[in-house]
Design brief:
The protein is mainly α. It has one domain. The protein is built from 16 helices and no strands. Helix 1 (8-32) packs antiparallel against helix 3, helix 8 (159-181) packs antiparallel against helix 10 and helix 14 packs across helix 15.
Length: 339
């Protein structure tokens, strides 16, 4: 398969994952509003919206693995150091520094010098202590750095080698979440990494070695049904979410990625257009949501059903983020080097 040509289902999955990320943050922000805590039913519905979209970031990683690990796409450490990592670094510097400074300025002490605020913001940015959704960018730098290593292994591997590798990484993904649940402090913060190390080559594996079959599609649908029912049961009974990505969330992401291969469109220009802006939308949407909830307090205005409220805010946020992305891409440096 030639991954250099436009692939409609990849654009579809990228847009869907971007929308899911916005749903995650909208659900969380509605949950945190004081008024909703007195309404148990609404709180649980927003919790369900928040949890059911947890597949979003794993799908992003699967897409990256599919596009970057294909042997037909040549990627060297020179590419990584001069193109891929600088793009993420510029995004963190330009957007992350603004987010950190805003956060530090709004929570400053009355007599705190401006220089101290700037210094704290810079230190937080360098140490990865940025806005919640920006952790994904730090993680991408690590995956990009490992890409030539993965490609070297893939280039000398046959189908059997890849099968063995996938079995080993699958076992790791099953064990890791339970180690995280044990909350072993010295290692807990590092235990999410193997899940991403597994998902990254999985995108390539599913895209290349897993053709469309009715039985496989039926299994994927069954996984998603179980995922939805389990999430609803956990939410309704008030069980705390497991830290990190559980085997069921990973399985749901794999199922969605596989089923995405069934998507086809004779006129995918809208998805192609939206997909081009997804990276910027991912970064910008959090700023828009913070203004909407913390400045405009839209949670006190919307008194409809939780799902309707969430859909309205997500649609508004996505469209406004897209509009901002269009404006930012008019700047040549941002368009060519960052977005």
């Amino acid at each position: 398969m030639n991954t250099s040509a436009p692939i409609p289902y990849i654009h579809f999955l990228r847009v869907m994952a971007t929308v899911a990320v916005i749903f995650i943050h909208v659900g969380a922000m509605f949950q945190s509003s004081c008024e909703l805590k007195s309404c148990e039913n609404s709180y649980f519905q927003y919790e369900f919206i928040h949890r059911i979209c947890s597949f979003a970031v794993p799908v992003f990683i699967l897409i990256s693995g599919f596009l970057l690990l294909n042997p037909k796409k040549e990627i060297t450490y020179q590419n990584i150091l001069h193109k891929y990592i600088p793009r993420i670094a510029w995004a963190l510097l330009l957007f992350g520094s603004v987010m950190n400074f805003t956060e530090a300025y709004m929570t400053r002490e009355c007599d705190e010098p401006l220089l101290d605020i700037i210094l704290v913001s810079a230190i937080n940015l360098l140490t990865g202590n940025c806005w919640d959704h920006m952790w994904y960018l730090y993680m991408l730098i690590g995956l990009y750095a490992l890409t030539p290593v993965y490609k070297a292994f893939i280039n000398i591997s046959d189908r059997t080698d890849m099968n063995i590798f996938m079995v080993f990484m699958t076992a790791m993904c099953i064990v890791i979440p339970y180690l995280r649940q044990a909350n072993i402090a010295p290692i807990n913060s590092y235990l999410t990494l193997p899940v991403f190390l597994f998902l990254y080559p999985c995108g390539y594996y599913i895209g290349i070695f897993c053709p469309k079959k009715k039985l496989s599609a039926a299994i994927a649908v069954l996984i998603l049904v179980i995922y939805c029912l389990h999430t609803a049961w956990q939410t309704w009974h008030g069980h705390d979410a497991y830290p990190g990505y559980t085997p069921l969330i990973v399985s749901a992401a794999l199922a969605i990625f596989y089923l995405g291969k069934y998507y086809s469109s004779s006129n995918p220009w809208i998805l192609n257009l939206l997909s081009m802006h997804c990276f910027c939308i991912y970064i910008i949407h959090a700023i828009i949501l913070n203004v909407a909830f913390k400045v405009l307090h839209i949670e006190s205005i919307l008194h409809f059903a939780p799902l309707f409220n969430a859909c309205v805010v997500v649609l508004f946020t996505f469209l406004l983020s897209y509009f901002v992305s269009c404006l930012l891409r008019q700047i040549p440096f941002l368009r060519e080097k960052v977005l």
